[in-house]
Structure formats: structure tokens, C-alpha cells
TrEMBL record:
GO terms for molecular function: transmembrane transporter activity. The keyword Cytoplasm does not apply. GO terms for cellular component: plasma membrane. This is Iron ABC transporter permease. It is found in: Cell membrane. Belongs to the binding-protein-dependent transport system permease family. FecCD subfamily. One of its GO terms (biological process) is siderophore-iron import into cell. The lineage of its organism: Bacteria, Bacillati, Actinomycetota, Actinomycetes, Micrococcales. Keywords: Cell membrane, Membrane, Transmembrane, Transmembrane helix, Transport. Pfam families: FecCD (PF01032). CDD domains: TM_ABC_iron-siderophores_like. It is a multi-pass membrane protein. SUPFAM superfamilies: ABC transporter involved in vitamin B12 uptake, BtuC (SSF81345). Signal peptide: none annotated.
Length: 337
């Protein structure tokens, strides 16, 4: 009886430490930019003591960026955790399984054919592209006697991503006007957002979070294998469908507003699994929290090292995430979940 209570206390303490870490990262995001703003100026801007002060101007521009980084990082971290659990594939993530490129292709087509130009329009195309890409990958991987094994999913995702990337390039090469609009979105970044755009994606992120929480128990059972899960009375297909819909909503909405950002959904679930173990009731909140921390920190680092300009956060997550993920693989020798 003492051991579960001790473990629960340790995991609760870890969440509390993560919340403090996210608060510190968010404060740094408000402080650092093209110019460093003191905390006194930030507090003055937050409480509108002087609306014309540089602190107020900095808060007005950096606060939406920080909030968006928190939401997108949390969404991508959670999407990766859900996808890895649903597919039992340690390499599953919105980028590797083609969801990001499915969203990208849909947005490109929307810009080229339907002249879309706002986050509200992007999100529907991105969600549709993410859903179709995920269904295509799963359908390809399901062919054959063994069904959608982790290896087949990874191969199908890689092949589908390559094909979708070629289609995106084909559209952009023939439409330079589309390329001018798309190239800034394609890199992946959280700059230039406003609370109006954030409000448009928030319902989709909330729906994805609710579905992920609802699927936590089913994902724990799926980890035992499909045959044993069925023997225990679990609805394997329904559990995967709910988890898949959650991942599509989270990754599609995040990609629609921030562009395709890689490595967050891949690295974060592996990192937090060292502390939480495989149980999704803890893995889900940890993935949300530390995905948000990773993206906020990556955005801050990108602004600091390239001041007065900044490096897009999609580039920074690749620089930070790739070596860290290699370290995780070498240390943990990650296999099928």
C-alpha cells in the first residue's frame, strides 16, 4: 500500500516541478526578444501601468507568442504520446506518420485553388489533410496477414511522407505566388500569432485533449497486444479510432496555426516515460506539460542566439530534438511498446 502512494506522490511532485518550470520558461519568453525587457517592465506592461511603455508593447507582442508555444507544444507532445500508444510504435509522431505533410499538402492546395489566407480557413484544410494522411498510412500498413505492425506503420508513414512532400513541391514549383505565402508557414513557428487566431484553434485542441484522456485506459490495454486486449474484453478498433481522432485533432490544429513542427511528439513521450512508466493516465499530463516546456524553451533559444532576428522554432526543435532522441535510443534501447 505504501509503494503506490509513494509513486503517486513522486509523480504529483514531478507535475508540480514541471508547472514551475513552464512558468519560468514563460517568463523568459516575455523577457527575451530583439531587446531584453526587465521584469519590472514586464509587470508594468501586464498591469497596464503605462500603456505606452516598451514593457506594455513587448507584452502585447510576446504574450500571444508564448501562449501559442504552450498550446502547440502541449498538443504535439500529447499527439505523439497517443499515437505511440495506439500503434505500439516508438517512432510514431505526427511528422513520421505523415500527418504533418498531409496537413501541409491540404493547406497548399487550399492556398493554390481556394485562395485561403487565414487561420480559420487553414485549420479545416489542415484537419482534413491530417485525417486523410493518417487513414492512408494505416490502410497501407494494415495490408497483409499481421496487420498494422509498428514496423509496417513506420515504413508506410515514411513512404507516404515522401509522396506527400513531392506533391507539395510540385504545387510550389508551378505556383511561385503560393510559395511566397507558404514558405513562412512551412518552416514552423509561433511568431506573429494573435489571440483571435488562438481562439479559433482552442476548441479543436480541447476536443483532442478530452478524447486523449478518454482513451487513456484503452491505450494501456492496447499495450498488452491486440489478442490479449480482445481477451480482456477491450474494443481494439474503437480504442484506436478514438486515439487516432484525438491525434488528428491535436496535430492538425497545431499544424494549421504554427506549421509543421517536428520532433516534439517524438522526443517528449520517450523522455517523460522514464518518470511515468507506460501508464497513460500519467503519461498524458506529463506529455502535455513537457511538450509545452520544450517548445517555449526552443522558441526562447531561437530568439536569443539570432538576436535581433530569430530562428523559427521548427528549426530549433530539430536542432535540440535530434541529438536528444539519439541519446534516448542509445540509453533505453527503445523497442516496440
Amino acid at each position: 500500500m505504501k509503494r503506490p502512494a509513494s509513486r503517486r506522490a513522486r509523480l504529483t511532485l514531478g507535475l508540480a516541478i514541471g508547472i514551475v518550470g513552464l512558468a519560468v520558461a514563460s517568463a523568459l519568453s516575455l523577457v527575451f526578444g530583439s531587446r531584453i525587457v526587465s521584469m519590472d517592465e514586464i509587470l508594468s506592461g501586464l498591469f497596464n501601468r503605462d500603456p505606452e511603455s516598451f514593457g506594455a508593447i513587448a507584452v502585447a507582442s510576446r504574450m500571444p507568442r508564448t501562449v501559442l508555444a504552450i498550446l502547440v507544444g502541449g498538443a504535439l507532445g500529447l499527439a505523439g504520446a497517443v499515437m505511440q500508444g495506439a500503434t505500439r510504435n516508438p517512432l510514431a509522431d505526427p511528422g513520421i506518420l505523415g500527418i504533418n505533410l498531409g496537413s501541409a499538402l491540404a493547406v497548399v492546395v487550399g492556398i493554390a485553388v481556394f485562395d485561403i489566407d487565414s487561420a480559420r480557413q487553414y485549420i479545416w484544410f489542415a484537419l482534413a489533410g491530417a485525417a486523410l494522411a493518417s487513414l492512408l498510412v494505416y490502410a497501407i500498413a494494415s495490408r497483409g496477414r499481421e496487420g498494422a505492425t509498428p514496423l509496417k506503420l513506420a515504413l508506410a508513414g515514411a513512404a507516404t511522407s515522401a509522396a506527400l512532400s513531392s506533391l507539395v513541391s510540385a504545387v510550389l514549383l508551378t505556383r511561385t505566388d503560393v510559395f511566397d505565402v507558404f514558405r513562412f508557414w512551412q518552416v514552423g513557428g509561433v511568431g506573429g500569432a494573435d489571440f483571435g487566431q488562438i481562439a479559433e484553434i482552442a476548441p479543436f485542441l480541447l476536443a483532442g485533449l478530452v478524447l486523449a484522456l478518454f482513451s487513456a485506459r484503452g491505450l494501456d490495454v492496447l499495450a498488452l497486444g491486440d489478442d490479449l486486449a480482445r481477451g480482456l474484453g477491450a474494443h481494439v478498433g474503437r480504442s484506436r479510432a478514438i486515439a487516432g481522432l484525438s491525434a488528428v485533432l491535436l496535430a492538425g490544429a497545431a499544424t494549421a496555426i504554427a506549421g509543421p513542427i517536428g520532433f516534439v511528439g517524438l522526443v517528449v513521450p520517450h523522455a517523460v516515460r522514464f518518470f511515468t512508466g507506460p501508464h497513460h493516465r500519467w503519461l498524458i499530463p506529463y506529455s502535455v506539460l513537457f511538450g509545452a516546456i520544450l517548445l517555449v524553451v526552443a522558441d526562447v533559444v531561437g530568439r536569443v542566439i539570432a538576436r535581433p532576428t530569430d530562428i523559427q522554432v521548427g528549426i530549433m526543435t530539430a536542432i535540440i530534438g535530434a541529438p536528444f532522441f539519439i541519446f534516448l535510443i542509445r540509453r533505453a534501447k527503445v523497442r516496440e511498446l
